[in-house]
């Protein structure tokens, strides 16, 4: 009943039926509004933009024409400043005053000068934003919590692309959050370990704190704290993959969507070790001339951020502050957790894009001329080189160009995403839905890393990185409605397919059928497009770790 009442618009519905559906929705909303107004003691009303959460009262934006209210810039944790710099997130302070929630809070510091943050920047940046169409706090709508990408170095919940208003029209409540980035989010130091929890992953702890905030407060917005789906892209997807392998996420979410990412692997291998993170932290403190954490905390945020800046042409897993094994939030390599069936037991929707490697092109292995590709292959794969070259051939320069780009996309994104799909289904025995994104149009000409986000959120505007690439057509809008329906159906029920929405069938992933859904110009079921390549790369792991030697090979790429 809830699915029918709050389902999104059917993109395949005949035009003659749209007015009828509109009348039904208006009637349903009117009935629910009447119940809210007539029985306030039974049903807590959300007919105004003022609500109360655990930390106090919020005044949000009035409902838009679609009935969606936005509550922006809500602190979900205390400002991580002063002695709380490089500390586990603390609860947001309570206040008796009504807080304005009509504008985004500050973004966290960006470690990437090439990608400046949206709006004001501050260490005081742990804010959440909520979009809801609920009229009563007791509606218990499904909740979708978005973790943004940006290599753990840049990005913000205030980026217009992540505005949750359109997605919330599908009957879900959308939450977006900030989390600490770069050196503020991922500094590991022995002294910090002695001061509290093991250090190095404060950004991940922020995400856990945000999920705890959702569990404790989302009911006030009409959301169901027992039906929370986390979804994210790139670093956001890597975050979720890592949290799926973390004991601290138990019970904080009930479904997960990974868009292009999982373990924070790269062309330089798996994520940084405990010892490696502390060596990196010690070198950073020495660089700043600080002999203690106290001295580091007296430095300005700007000086720390500038000293920890990241060159966008390099792998942030190698050259920047990013997730590491801390023996706490991240107990070991995430792949090892998935391999032994100890990841969180939740349904999964996950996939990757056709042209993932293009976004990371400066990091491609040396491959020109073909002799250079042969040398790179031998350096990385040693005695496994013949097997590698049978899957990534390089006999001609054209072949080497394609194979080097395929390898880059596989190592940074695709192979690890496949592993989460395969292990969560076949080892952890959860319902899993896999996709391969290939959709292109004049508006979105390449199925590059990030391309699907516009369609998921329904925000078909200019690309914030590439600029405008065309005007969305009716086909683009229809495709957006399709992919948004799949995502929100999954959030509602754990199954992206709904016969009532006239969507193409999406089967569960399982062996031996190995089914993926191609989200392309023709949405159809296909076999795993790269299984042989993925199995080869997966075979190189030892206890979940890719070859450690890769961290020292081609460190200039």
From TrEMBL:
PROSITE patterns, per the entry: CARBOXYLESTERASE_B_1
Enzyme Commission number(s): 3.1.1.-
One Pfam family hit: COesterase
InterPro entries: AB_hydrolase_fold, CarbesteraseB, Carboxylesterase_B_AS, Type-B_Carboxylest/Lipase
GO molecular function: hydrolase activity
Domain Carboxylesterase type B: start-end pairs: 49-532
Annotated keywords: Hydrolase
Family of this protein: Belongs to the type-B carboxylesterase/lipase family.
Record-given protein name: Carboxylic ester hydrolase
Native organism: Meristemomyces frigidus
Lineage: Eukaryota, Fungi, Dikarya, Ascomycota, Pezizomycotina
